[in-house]
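User: Please fill in residues for this 177-position structure.
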C-alpha cells in the first residue's frame, strides 16, 4: 500500500468543505471559567488570550469582581456581545460573551443586583436558547441554586443550558481542605 500524500490544494478544498458544513450545521461550544477577579490588566489580558485560543461560541465567566460601569474591561476582539450582572461592591459578578461568528439575538435578559446570575433568552442560528450563568455564594450554595431555579422555573425548558460555579461539593471529600 502506498502512502497518501495531501497536497496544499486538497487541504484548502477540505477547509472550504468544512467551512460550508459548519455554515449548514453549526455546532455550539460553550466554555465557562471562574476568573476570581478581572481588575488586574494582566489577568484580563490572559483571560482574553485564553478565550481567543479556545474560540468558543459562548464564554461564561464567574467572579468577575467588576462594577456595572466596567463593561469595557471585558472586551475581547471577536466577542462584541457582552452581557453581565455585577454589584457595586466589586464582588461576585457574572458575564456572558457571545462570538461575533454566530447569529445570536437576545430577546430577554434577567439578572440580579448582586451579580450572582444572568439569564439570557434568545435565538442562536434561529433556534431558541436560554442560557443561565450562575455564581453561587460560598455559603448556602445548594439553597441559593435551588431557590434561583424555582424563581426561573417559567423560563427553563429543554433549550436551557445552565453553567457556572455552583460552589457545591460533589462528595464529602470535596469539603475537606
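Assistant: Residues filled in for all 177 positions:
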Amino acid at each position: 500500500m502506498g502512502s497518501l500524500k495531501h497536497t496544499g490544494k486538497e487541504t484548502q478544498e477540505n477547509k472550504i468543505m468544512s467551512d460550508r458544513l459548519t455554515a449548514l450545521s453549526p455546532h455550539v461550544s460553550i466554555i465557562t471559567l471562574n476568573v476570581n477577579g478581572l481588575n488586574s490588566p494582566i489577568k484580563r489580558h490572559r483571560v482574553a488570550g485564553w478565550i481567543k485560543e479556545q474560540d468558543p461560541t459562548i464564554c461564561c465567566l464567574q467572579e468577575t469582581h467588576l462594577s456595572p460601569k466596567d463593561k469595557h474591561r471585558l472586551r475581547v476582539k471577536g466577542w462584541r456581545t457582552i452581557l453581565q450582572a455585577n454589584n457595586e461592591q466589586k464582588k461576585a459578578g457574572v458575564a456572558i460573551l457571545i462570538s461575533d461568528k454566530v447569529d445570536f439575538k437576545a430577546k430577554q435578559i434577567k439578572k440580579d443586583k448582586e451579580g450572582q446570575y444572568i439569564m439570557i433568552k434568545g435565538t442562536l442560528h434561529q433556534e431558541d436558547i436560554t442560557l443561565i450563568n450562575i455564581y453561587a455564594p460560598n455559603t448556602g450554595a445548594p439553597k441559593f441554586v435551588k431557590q434561583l431555579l424555582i424563581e426561573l422555573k417559567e423560563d427553563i425548558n429543554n433549550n436551557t443550558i445552565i453553567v457556572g460555579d455552583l460552589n457545591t461539593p460533589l462528595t464529602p471529600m470535596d469539603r475537606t481542605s
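For context: The first strand starts at residue 30 and ends at 34.
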